[in-house]
Every structure is written in structure tokens, then in C-alpha cells.
Specification:
The protein has one domain: outer membrane lipoprotein receptor (LolB), chain A (Clam), CATH 2.50.20. About 10% of the residues lie in helices and about 40% in strands. It has four helices and 13 strands. It has helices at about 35-45, 120, 140-145, 170-175; strands spanning about 5, 20-25, 50-55, 65-75, 80-90, 90-100, 105-110, 115, 145-155, 160-170, 185-190, 200-205, 210-220. The chain has a twelve-stranded antiparallel sheet. Strand 6 and strand 7 (about 105-110) form a beta hairpin. The longest helix is centred in the N-terminal third of the chain and has 12 residues, at about 35-45.
């Protein structure tokens, strides 16, 4: 899983057994979108570890990953991640496991042992650790959403959320979604109560077929121990 290939934001189908129901309400009955995202950004910047899921809907130019799921941590020099991935690798469909620790990535198919990817390949791949990086990850995107508007409420896997939509500049979102060459529309779902932690988000990619890149964060604060394969 190439370090520039793995990531970005989400839809109701991204997580198995996730139940979604939504409702639109008059804008005057909903909290201000900018305030919700400000709280969500502050909360996300403090997250040290979490579980993530990724789904790519359609064909996103420059993004070879189709889906991924695993754990993330900000520990170490460059963070770490591990899980499973489905992606196009050197022209072939690869489905298996990945481990990322600092600047090194290992993959493992259905058979055989983990194999470390060459440094020349890693340099061109997406870094899942970017998700939790306060300066280039989800917290940074939340802080730079333009014209955010709260559209309604939605229940996600038993959690009550507000749905907030806005726009994000290309240079802000490109660290999370490789291949983005223009500004994008983005939707966040944040908890209604407490610190308004983001539950999921979805980036609408301006390309043929209206593809999107979706990601969820759950099990925030879970203990994660990620080490290089033996």
C-alpha cells in the first residue's frame, strides 16, 4: 500500500453494519456549521490513535486504493498504521495486509510473508498517518472548510450527528486525497453532543462519474501497538 495511495473520507456503506438515517431541518433550527467544525478540528487535533475505514466510490484519478481498514497511531517519528487493503499495485489487483511504521511499508498477500516495499515506491504512496497529523490531516481540513453549512441531522451506527457541508481548497485536501487537482466539496458528520468529534466525512472528487473518497474514524483513543513485521 503505497504510501501515497491509502486515504481520505466516507459514506453510509463504508462500514459494515452501520445504520444510517437522516433528516433535513430548517437552517434556523440547526447549530452554526462553522462553530461545529471549529470544535471538531480542536478535538481531532488531540486524537492519538483510532480505527479507520476507507472506501473509494468510482474511479479517482491517481488513487489506486479501492478500500482499506485498520488502526492508526501518531506514535513514532512518522506515525504508524496497519490493517487490510484492496488496491491496484503495479497494474494488478492486490488484496492483503499492510504495516506502515515511520517511513517504511510492508505488504503481505494471501500467501507468503511480509515484504518491504522499496523506498522508490514508498515515496509515491499515500501515508495513512496523515489522517491524524494536526498540520496536514483531518484536523487541518476541518479548520479550512469554506462556507460550511449545517444541512441536517443523521444517525450513524447509533450515534446522533450533524451533517455539515462545505468546500475545501485543493492544496488543503491533496495531502489526504492524492490526485486532486481542484477545489472539492466535502461533507462531515460530527457528533451532536460533547466535543463534536467527526464520525465520518466524504470528499466529492470532480472527475468523470462523480467519484468520492470516504473515510470513518472510530474507537478513538484505543490502545494501538504497531511494530514492524519480524
Amino acid at each position: 500500500m503505497m504510501r501515497r495511495i491509502l486515504l481520505a473520507v466516507l459514506a453510509c456503506t463504508a462500514v459494515a453494519a452501520t445504520a444510517c438515517s437522516s433528516s433535513d431541518e430548517p437552517a434556523g433550527d440547526l447549530p452554526d456549521g462553522a462553530g461545529l467544525l471549529k470544535d471538531a478540528a480542536a478535538t481531532t487535533a488531540k486524537i492519538e490513535a483510532a480505527h479507520f475505514t476507507l472506501t473509494v466510490n468510482g474511479e479517482v484519478p491517481g488513487l489506486d486504493v479501492r478500500s482499506a481498514e485498520g488502526d492508526l497511531t501518531r506514535e513514532g517519528d512518522g506515525g504508524a498504521a496497519q490493517g487490510t487493503v484492496s488496491m491496484n499495485l503495479l497494474g494488478q489487483l492486490f488484496e492483503g495486509e499492510f504495516v506502515l511504521v515511520d517511513d517504511k511499508v510492508w505488504i503481505k498477500g494471501p500467501t507468503g510473508d511480509h515484504q518491504e516495499l522499496p523506498a522508490s515506491m514508498v515515496a509515491n504512496l499515500y501515508d495513512p498517518g496523515a489522517i491524524l497529523d494536526p498540520e496536514r490531516g483531518v484536523a487541518n481540513v476541518l479548520s479550512n472548510v469554506q462556507d460550511p453549512a449545517t444541512e441536517g441531522t443523521e444517525d450513524i451506527d447509533g450515534e446522533s450527528t450533524y451533517r455539515v457541508k462545505g468546500k475545501v481548497a485543493r492544496d488543503v485536501v491533496s495531502s489526504l486525497v492524492p490526485g486532486i487537482d481542484s477545489d472539492v466539496e466535502i461533507t462531515f458528520w460530527v457528533l451532536q453532543d460533547g466535543d463534536h468529534r467527526p464520525v465520518k466525512a466524504s470528499v466529492a472528487v470532480p472527475a468523470d462519474g462523480d467519484p468520492s473518497v470516504d473515510v470513518t474514524l472510530s474507537d478513538v483513543g484505543k490502545q494501538v501497538d504497531i511494530t514492524p513485521p519480524a
